[in-house]
Amino acid sequence: MTIKGKMAIVAALAGAVGALGAESPCVDRVAPFPAWSEPRAVTQGPHEHLLASYFAIDSWSPNKRYLSVLETDLNGRLPEANERCTLGLVDLEDGNRFIPVTTTACWNFQEAAMAHWMNDDEILFNDVRDGKFRTVILNWRTKKERMLPMPVSAVSEDRTWAVSINYARLSLTRPDYGYAGPGQDARADVEYPADDGIWTMDLKTGETRLVVPISETRKLESKVVWPKPAPKNQLAYHCHTVISKDGAKIFFLARTVDLAGSNLKKVTYWETTAFTVNRDGTDLRRCFRDGWQASHFNWAPDGSHKMLVTAVWDGDKKGRKWGQTAWSPVEFEVGHESEVRRIGAGILDQDWHCVYSPDGKFMSGETYWNKNFERPWVLVRLADGMTMPMGSFFVPEAYRGGYWRCDLHARYRPDGRQIAFNSVHEGTRQVYLRDIQQTGER
After folding, report:
1. pLDDT tens, residue by residue, 9-53
2. Rounded CA gap, 281 and 298, in Å?
3. Is residue 229 classed exposed, middle or buried when 0-12, 13-18 and 19+ CB atoms within 10 A define those classes?
4. 86, β-bridge pairs
């Protein structure tokens, strides 16, 4: 079924539920849908722009005045080693004026430079320094900076520590998420290294610690079922890390890939297992059973260990061709992994970027382009699964390459009053904002 067909079903269901009125006690208890404004661009050509971090990461300065973005003229290919782009700020109180701050050679079109705000004056991001991939913490006003020994993959809410992974290995296994060049030892000749994996790093001292080696997750991973004949050049890696809001847990994906086509920068097959682990490396847990894999994810904003994740709901590949999966958003809590709740009752069977609203009442979800080359976006009320379409965004042909695609990668402002995203629906890659009004404010 096409996404338009599914949205038609959603609209019909919305009418049916709305007609229940007071006869449905659930309807009286759930939050009304907020009103969203139409998108407006806050960057413009001739240069291309994208938010300076991955989806769900806060891009606003704490005072909400500035938005962190990257500026580049590159499209149609991946950045090459030491190919730099501009890290800058959009001044939302001065006509969306772009302020160039510095440049970085650690960036891509998916996770950008993994920029995070430390405070109103300091920005954390990845860069190449002395030939190594490192974290830089820069005072953008004074230009004073300090360096940390490894790049960041996720940053704690209190900005005291971070998770790090091997971006050189990621460049081999998932080129659109890694960094080109020898900035780290990719350990390309070791399938399951014991000296690489999930690292933690103190953002004050720079102290690092390997908490989950790739070799440790091997015995817990889903069985890799390769198409026949099985590839001979396999490599395992860790990626897509995110820290729970209370700083106690790390979520990450463990993957094994076929590198037969890596010289062409194309990974043909992969298998995924989702894990959570305590900050100190204890209590390593699988999130789902074999076959469920995992894709996009977000920790609950209330500090609990509940998560939204896109997973393969039934985990059954029987009768499907390789790569054909029934992705669905699900919600679960660490320690209660068997009690997974499907979001959308099958209507939302897509690989959504799942993002909790700051109050935890809604899920923002946007996904890949459909047969009409449009990216659908929906808002889901988690209390009852009611869904409201939030638009569909066209992807011009120049942005349909897998590695330089422009995912919407939405993220909420922490107060829930705005949402930011990337898009190419007006012809170039730019950054957009939508305002959000709660019911009763209009």
Report:
1. 444 333 333 322 222 334 446 789 999 999 999 999 999 999 999
2. 20
3. exposed
4. 71, 103
Q: Which residue has the tokens 């198409």?
A: 227
Ramachandran class of 206: left when φ > 0, alpha when ψ lies in -120 to 50, beta otherwise: left
How far is 295 from 262, CA to CA, in rounded Å? 21
> With contact defined as beta carbons under 8 Å apart, do 114 and 125 qualify?
yes
Tokens of 133: 């991939």
Paired tokens of 147: 């360096």
Structure tokens that stand for 72 in this block: 């580049």
For residue 325, the number of C-alpha atoms closer than 13 Å in the C-beta half-sphere is: 21
Which pair of structure tokens corresponds to residue 159? 């900005």
The CA-based diameter of the chain, rounded to the nearest angstrom, is 67
User: What pLDDT shows up at residue 317?
Assistant: 54
Residues 269, 224: contact at Cβ < 8 Å? no
Task: State the Cα torsion 245-437-385-391 to the nearest 10°.
Answer: -110
Which residues 6+ apart lie within 8 Å of 337 measured at CB? 285, 286, 287, 288
What digits encode the pLDDT tens for the residues 134-159?
Answer: 999 999 999 999 999 999 999 999 99
